[in-house]
Amino acid sequence: MSKHLTTALHLAASGTPVLPLRAGKVPFGNCRRCADNACGGRPNMKTPGPCTCPNPCHGWAAATIDPHVINSGSWRRAWQHASTVAYHPGGAGMTVVDLDDVDAIAWAREHLAATRTVPTTRGEHWIYRGAVTSVNGARPGVDVKSTMAYARWLGFGTGPMADLPDEVRALVDKPAPARPRPLPVPGAVSVPAGGGRCPHRSPVFLERGLVMAEQRISVATSGVHNAVYSAFLAVLSTHGRCGCLTEDHIARLFAAAQAKGESARHCATAWTNALITLGV
Predict the structure, then answer these.
(1) Which of 130, 158, 200, 252 has the smallest CB count inside 10 Å?
(2) Beta strand pairing status for 124-129 and 94-99?
(3) Phi, psi of 41 (to 5 degrees)
(4) Cβ contacts of residue 196 below 8 Å, gap of 6+?
(5) Which of 29-38, 78-87, 143-152, 171-180 is the least confident region?
(6) Do strands 162-163 and 124-129 pair parallel, antiparallel, or not at all (unpaired)?
(7) Rounded to 5 degrees, what angle do the CA atoms 265, 267, 273 make?
(8) Of 167, 169, 168, 125, nearest to 150 (Cα)?
(9) Nearest in space to 95 (alpha carbons), one of 146, 170, 139
(10) How much is the pTM?
(11) Biggest CA-to-CA distance, the chain
(12) Residue 52, CA atoms < 13 Å, CB-side half-sphere
């Protein structure tokens, strides 16, 4: 039995939903049956749906406390290739305040109640009792991970766990900033003309594809250029020939890429390259 599987079973026994992460601290990709959310449920950033796939291939929504699932054949194979164990804090009634640098830690020590603390590679996880909506970039160097999110398991940490303070609730309840629009780029970005057979079963199908592409970009920790190109390619391969993509849809994808530090020029180049690759 791998050490990650052993850890996962111990956590699940305590009521903490777990899932395996592959290299790069990202979930295992969807299997063929569930690729592009074809199974109709459990996209990573939505409420879990009806999918009963036995593979751990739905990000945070795959997290479970069921030892029979965790120790099943497909999960055991995943644990053998996993780089670490993750857990779904909201599913365990917890919130992780992820502090990414010394400035964020200093802010937390000044403004937040002391609680259980776990060291990370670059900072600390402060773990509270109580679940809220997850928000990346709640403030500089601070992510809030709770519902519909996962956090790496880095040990039990030190100190008693405190109740979630109002200061954290205020961070996630503040109005969301307006979605950034792509900066002007040299030349026009092509919008696929369409004309092919539309595969969409409903408008939700297109929305799910866009959300999954945005997430693929947002979780990239390295190789952002490749992540952006792959996300553009995935959207265009499914939606680029039926005429459903609009400038607003492209703006969403560009905004997600720019939020990861991509320039407007790089976005335009990646989009054009994806169009050329697919012959759209």
Answers:
(1) 158
(2) antiparallel
(3) -155, 160
(4) 241, 242, 243
(5) 171-180
(6) parallel
(7) 100
(8) 125
(9) 146
(10) 0.63
(11) 61
(12) 0
Please give the angle made by the CA atoms of 93, 95 and 96, to the nearest 5 degrees. Answer: 140
Is 264:184 a contact under the CB 8 Å cutoff?
A: yes
SS (H, E, C) 79-122: HHHCCEEEECCHHHCEEEEEECCHHHHHHHHHHCCCCEEEECCC
Place of tokens 């592409």: 213
Q: Are strands 116-119 and 94-99 parallel, antiparallel or unpaired?
A: unpaired
The three-state (H, E, C) secondary structure of 34-47, written as one string = HHHHCCCCCCCCCC
Higher pLDDT, 168 or 234: 168
Tokens of 158: 């030190």
Place of tokens 């900066």: 183
* Count of Cβ atoms closer than 10 Å to residue 187 Cβ: 7
Strands, E assignment, 84-228:
84-87, 94-99, 116-119, 124-129, 135-139, 142-145, 151-152, 162-163
List the structure tokens of 236.
């265009």
Q: Kindly report which listed range (65-69, 168-172, 221-225) carries the lowest average pLDDT score.
A: 221-225
Run of H or E including 21 = strand 18-22
> What three-state secondary structure class fits 138?
strand
The identity of residue 106, as a single letter, is A
